[in-house]
Amino acid sequence: MLSVREITPAEHLAFLDSRRSASFLQTPAWGRVKAEWRHQSLGWFEGEKLIGAGLVLYRQLPKVKRYLAYLPEGPDLDWADDDLERWLAPLTAHLKGQGAFAVRMGPPVVVRQWSAAQVKDGIADPAVRRLGDLAPEARDHVGARVVSQLRELGWRPQLAEGGFSAGQPQYVFWIPLRTADGEQRTEADVLAGMNQLWRRNIKKAEKSGVEVRTATAETLADDLAAFHALYAHTAERDHFTPRPLSYFRTMADALGSEAPERFRLHLAHHEGDLVAATIAIRVGGHAWYSYGASSTEKREVRGSNAVQWAMIREALAAGCDVYDLRGITDTLDADDPHVGLIQFKVGTGGEAVEYVGEWDLPLNRAIYQAFQLYLRRRS
């Protein structure tokens, strides 16, 4: 019989340090980043032994003390277990006692994977419109079993859309940094896996004199301000709403104080001009490209490719298993405006990956239905 109870951030972090990989959204530090949510670290115990952990974010409904309990890209437990109910029943009982009207989680479990070559061919084929139209290169039986068990237990799959309901991406694109037998890949091997355009742009940036450096503790405040100015410029050009500088300062402080490798800001300069900047995050053997910005001027010096290559090399040097370029949509329709993003990432020679996605479990059906109606009206 498993039990779930609150644990300290130190206990939570110690558990994560014993794992090869966990989402940065499940670190204790992420609760500090999401200050508008109440947060709590939970532990799964078998007797007195801690065998699982998760970060819960509680989002309060307007005017009432009822909460959506959210575990982004978590929790971190044994998803290969044939009996997920023994893990999830004590979780939902605890959250109900905390005033939750529903639970939302995103199990970090892969379902299907497609190679870069498959995705490229799919985009070129007019008959193919989505990743699901392609036979995957690999299927994960654990992922299939998790989906089946969640449905049987009454959980509901969610579609990640805009606004409050926007969750974490179900589809991502990553570059494996180890071979199938677990050997670390070399820089030359990763570079050879990229398409000709990516390799040419990396070489062009080097020949143009683009220099990439990493912010230090002494330069971080000024470098974050420079990054944010370029990020705001990027947002105006690409028509998205930027986060405030204060958000990135909080992220840098919270993640950076938890572990020195957790938050890394990279800046690409050309003849003194900042042409690209990115934020990388690392937990164990998993490295993520989190945020990026680029200048409209001097795009020909390929600062964005240079800074990506610098982050990939850093992940390789750290012995990481994967470099994760984060979310993509599942569209392969050449006329879809979102296809450009996947084409950019496909050039790295990595893999498109589908997770099981986010799932809801209503604990109070009346409030949950009202909440769903509220979301539909907002969107």
UniProtKB/TrEMBL annotation:
**Superkingdom of the organism of origin:** Bacteria
Signal peptide: which range, if any?
none
Q: Record keywords: Transmembrane helix included? A: no
Question: Mind telling me which Gene3D superfamilies this protein's record contains?
Answer: 3.40.630.30
Entry's InterPro entries? Acyl_CoA_acyltransferase, FEMABX, PG_Glycine_Bridge_Synth
Q: Does the keyword Ubl conjugation apply?
A: no
Q: Which UniProt keywords apply?
A: Acyltransferase, Cell shape, Cell wall biogenesis/degradation, Peptidoglycan synthesis, Transferase
Q: Cross-referenced PANTHER family, in alphabetical order?
A: LIPID II:GLYCINE GLYCYLTRANSFERASE
Q: Please report which protein family the annotation says this sequence is part of.
A: Belongs to the FemABX family.
Annotated protein name in UniProt:
Peptidoglycan bridge formation peptidyltransferase VanK-Sc
